[in-house]
Design brief:
about 230 residues, alpha/beta, Rossmann fold, DNA polymerase, domain 1, 2 domains, globular, HAD_sf, Pyr-5-nucltdase, Suppressor of deletion of TFIIS, HAD-SF_hydro_IA
Length: about 230
Amino acid sequence: MKHSERVLFLDIDNCLYSPDLGISQMMKSRIYAYGREIGLDSDEVEETCSTYFKDYGLTVRGLVLHHNIDPQEFNDKVDGSLPLEDIIKPNPLLRNMIESANARIWAFTNAGLDHASRVLKCLGIEDLFEGITYCDYTEPNFPCKPEKRVYEKAMKEAGVSNPQLCYFADDSAKNVEAALQLDWTAVHVSKQTSSCEHGYIAGEDNIIRCCHIETVLNLPQALPELFS
């Protein structure tokens, strides 16, 4: 276990593995199939699910609120049905990079616990994380990124009270911006251009750096203070 006071929060999906694996597309097709199964109009299911995702952070939250679905059934038929073990393979380079970080390592995901644990196991890095802040679909009005309260939840669960000790990597620009608003140091992991690629964003008491990298393996270059 790392003894540093600093905590490196790592998103999981499309961050620790490449989005080119197509897992997001597989998940979307399963969500749409589930939507049709519960009675959503076939011609409107994609738009409805997309609207829920934009309005509530996760499609499942909208389905729970407006269609009274069983969240465990959703989890089993969507996340749980993904053939992750056939797609995601152990990544020694990722493991070596995480092991070299001078920070405590914590997973911070919008997925459920089962899915998050499966991905980390497939990558061969599950033992490197002290814990996982995840979405409990069965919890009424559960928080998810980019809501402020889930970042506060992550800090509490990881046992860190000073936001200046919090470092974060995520593939979502919205999630990165939310972290910056809380004075975390954040890195946007994406092959697409980031809004904070070239600059610095001022926090309340200091300057918080927002970096952009194309792959999580570039974290040592983005956050040299954690890998020196």
